[in-house]
Design brief:
Blueprint lengths: L1 H12 L3 H23 L10 H19 L4 H6 L2 H5 L5 H22 L2 H9 L4 H28 L3 H16 L5
Helix pairs in contact: 1-6, 2-3, 2-6, 3-8, 3-9, 6-8, 8-9
Length: 179
């Protein structure tokens, strides 16, 4: 499992994908943070990050399928799926290695966003319980959508098709509670 994890993490971090994704995430997080601060009135003394995480989920739906689209689709496209299946690893170890590698990139992005609560707590007041719940909820949301993206990527050989289907399915899941 560690070999699959290492290969996937290296493929993320040896290319500019992880860094561009993190920069895009921080840019969107900064925009949402500035919008939330501008909406605050002077009478409120606590700042909550739950609104920012709620707003950024819509934009993050475009990024998660791109993170997961090539996981299995490229393995099938380049013929390396046979090498994986004939390796001494079981199927669940391969799946778990790919999932944990994608979650590592996701956690890297979440870690980059931790600077906002730190500075907010230095210069203002942050409700720690809500902050922890927001981060845990966003982490679980990301884990669910990464698992869904990996599942969709395993169904197709074309990574673009996997990304498009992933975005459609994730939009359905995001707006499912409104029906």
């Amino acid at each position: 499992m560690f070999s699959v994890y290492k290969k996937e993490v290296q493929s993320f971090f040896y290319t500019p994908f992880a860094y561009v994704s993190a920069a895009l995430f921080i840019f969107l997080f900064t925009m949402m943070f500035n919008i939330a601060i501008s909406k605050m009135d002077s009478s409120s003394i606590h700042f909550t990050f739950t609104e920012i995480f709620y707003d950024i989920t819509f934009y993050f739906i475009f990024l998660v399928p791109i993170m997961t689209m090539r996981s299995y689709a490229d393995e099938r496209k380049f013929g390396t799926e046979i090498l994986l299946m004939t390796s001494p690893l079981s199927v669940w170890q391969i799946v778990l290695g790919k999932f944990l590698a994608t979650m590592t990139v996701f956690c890297f992005m979440l870690l980059c966003s931790a600077i906002f609560p730190i500075f907010t707590s230095i210069y203002g007041s942050v409700v720690i319980g809500q902050l922890i719940c927001a981060y845990v909820g966003f982490f679980l949301w990301g884990a669910m959508f990464i698992a869904l993206g990996l599942l969709i990527s395993s169904f197709t050989e074309n990574s673009i098709i996997a990304a498009i289907i992933g975005e459609i399915v994730m939009f359905v899941f995001l707006f499912l509670d409104q029906f």
